[in-house]
Amino acid sequence: MSWGVTLIRARRFADARGWFEESWSADRLAALGLDHGFVQDNLSLSHAPGTVRGLHFQRSPHAQAKLVRCITGAVFDVVVDLRAGSPTFGRALTVTLDAEAGDQLYVPVGFAHGFMTQKPETRVAYRVSAPYAPVAEGGLAWDDPALGVDWPDAGPPVLSDRDKTWPRLADADAPFAYDGVPMALRVVE
C-alpha cells in the first residue's frame, strides 16, 4: 500500500569536509511502500525567485508518481488532490523544499504538482514513474483561489505560456479514482 504524499527527510553524514547523503535508494523506497519503478530523471533551472512551474499531472495510462528534491535554492512546493471521490478532492498540501535540508517529496499518482522558486538560480530534480507523454498532459491554474494555497511573495510570478492557460479546478476534470489513502503529509526519517 502506498503511503500517499510523503516527505522523506535527508540522511546526511557530516564531517569537516562537508556532508554525504544517499539521495536515492530503491531499497529504502520499497521499504517505505513507495516503489514505483522510476524511469526518468528531470532537472529544472529557474533563474528568478517567483518562478512557477505547474500545477501539472499526466492522465492514465501515462500517470506519474514523482520524487522531488531541490538541489540548489528553495521552492514552495504544492500538491493538489485530483482523485474523484476523495474526501480531500481539490485541497492542497504545501511544503518548502530547500537544498540546505535536502528533503524529498514523494507525490503519488492522483495529484497535481507544482512549485514556486524562493531563491535565484534554483534547481529542482525529480524522478518520475512514467515518461513525459504530451497526449496525457494536464494541469490546474496555479493561482485558483479554490485551492486555498497561500503562495509566498517571492517576486513577480514568472510562468510559461502553457502554465498560464490551465483551467481552474471547477472547470477541470478529475482524472483519477480515489484509492482509499487519505491525503495527509507523512514525514519519514
Q: What Rg, in angstroms, do the CA atoms define?
A: 16 Å
Shape: globular
Could you state the oligomeric state of the chains shown?
A: single chain
Largest sheet: 6 strands, mixed
Q: What's the total number of strands? A: 15
Category by helix and strand content? mainly beta
Helix content range of the residues, please? under 10%
Q: What is the number of helices?
A: 1
Order of strands in the sheet with most strands: 4-12-6-10-1-15
Question: What gap, in angstroms, lies between the N and C termini?
Answer: 19 Å
Order of helices and strands: EEEHEEEEEEEEEEEE
Low-pLDDT regions? none
Beta-strand percentage range: 35-45%
Overall mean pLDDT stands at: 91
Write up this protein.
The protein has 189 residues and is mainly beta. It has one helix spanning 26-31; strands at 6-8, 12-15, 18-21, 40-46, 52-58, 66-72, 74-81, 83-84, 92-98, 104-107, 111-117, 122-128, 137-139, 176-177, 186-188. Strands 4-12-6-10-1-15 form a six-stranded mixed beta sheet, with no helix packed on it. A hairpin with a 2-residue loop joins strand 2 and strand 3 (18-21). The longest helix has 6 residues, at 26-31. The mean pLDDT is 91.
In brief:
This protein is mainly beta.
List keywords for this structure.
single chain, 189 residues, mainly beta, five-stranded antiparallel beta sheet, 15 strands
